[in-house]
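Can't paste images in this forum, so I'm doing it all in text. The chain is below; anyone willing to post the predicted structure tokens underneath?
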Amino acid sequence: MSPTALQSSGIVLQPEIPICQTDLPLDWYQAEFKPYAEEYLALPDRKPSSVLPWLDRYVKPAQAHFGDTLLLVAHFYMGGEIVKLVERYGGSVADSYQLALQAARHPEKKVIVESAVHFMAEAIAILAHDDQSVWITNPKAGCTMEMLAKDYMVLPVAEQLIERYGDELVVVAYMNTGGRLKSLAGRTGGAVCTSSNAHKVVRWALAQDKKVFFVPDQHLGRNTAKKLGLDLARVVALPDPQIGRGAFKIDDKVVPGGLGALDRAQMILWGAFCGVHTVFKPEHVRYWQEHGYRVLVHPESKLEVVQAADGEGSTNFLWDAVMKAPRGSKIAIGTEGHFVRNAREQGKLRGVEIVHLADIPDPAFQSIGCGCATMSRNDPPHLAGMLDLLRKGTPPDANRVLAGDMVDEATGLRDRLSESERASMIADARRSLERMIEITEAK
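Text version of the structure:
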């Protein structure tokens, strides 16, 4: 069964089950969305019996208006019940790799509405055909890791590395980057990667006798190096980009081990990280293992956590592990909290017990699993409003996603490239994405 086929498998929202979604403050909604938010906040409760009829008033007319040309998409990590709502209305829920391919592989879909984060919507836009438009339900939905790797932070450092190593250096850009960094990967002959194919992409780069600059997640980079059997002494992580907002000078003072270590390195890691996945500790792993659980973690976790766990992999890997686990299994999952909650619901239906790795019922641990707060900025009012405004022909331009757009997640302000700049950026970014696809899908 497809890991996203919740509805088609008969797993639907049950009546009178509360929808777990933290309501955003009204001032967090764009002016065009406030009427929908006010209606939503005025509902008597968050149960499907209240929310679904209200959503139907906006979603179904939009679907009738656009017909088969409309595509709704969301990511596994979405907060609340957006995953289930998108599937209820016939949309697609997937990991970042599959989301990036949605427009390219479905040319009949002309209007694509994404309920996830901005970099994912932008990846769809980079590969989209000219007659397809991509919209995000909330442009403020971002990624803490990507926030630590904006182009103005990374490019000054990348240019120094390119000047020092020339064609010997290639950039591998994790999907959790903006299009401008995906363009940098393409410009250096590199590629994009995801958590599921990072080892394939890095192995491809190293086979060309290249030095890899891995952006932005230092932990995925380090775990990938370990997976490929590299000497970790030849893997150098650059400083935390929160210090000085990146853009630092490459010299003996800032590089661990100095420039000599940098010259010997096979991989250079940007210093960003995911705030959700770095809460996990080896003690969490050992606790659940001692209680009879199989522990599976996402490779954005720290190396020592991945090494202690029983397995690691992408969201697809984790979801498949739940769906294929034999009845009576017990699994502790170390990844984003909303994903684990959805997995827990699926586990109950299959007689499989699922727990979040950090949710340990022992006060000595003082830890709790968390969801991605930025993804949770997409909620029912944003979905309803986006579709209704599109149907009326009055969608806010701020929600249109073009390749190269960079959005401030706090203010919603957008920096948009000129047409000529965007065309150049798309050429390089598309090259890096297509190279990833070639490497991933090679026979």
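The two ends are 23 Å apart (CA to CA). The CA atoms of residues 298 and 433 lie 22 Å apart.
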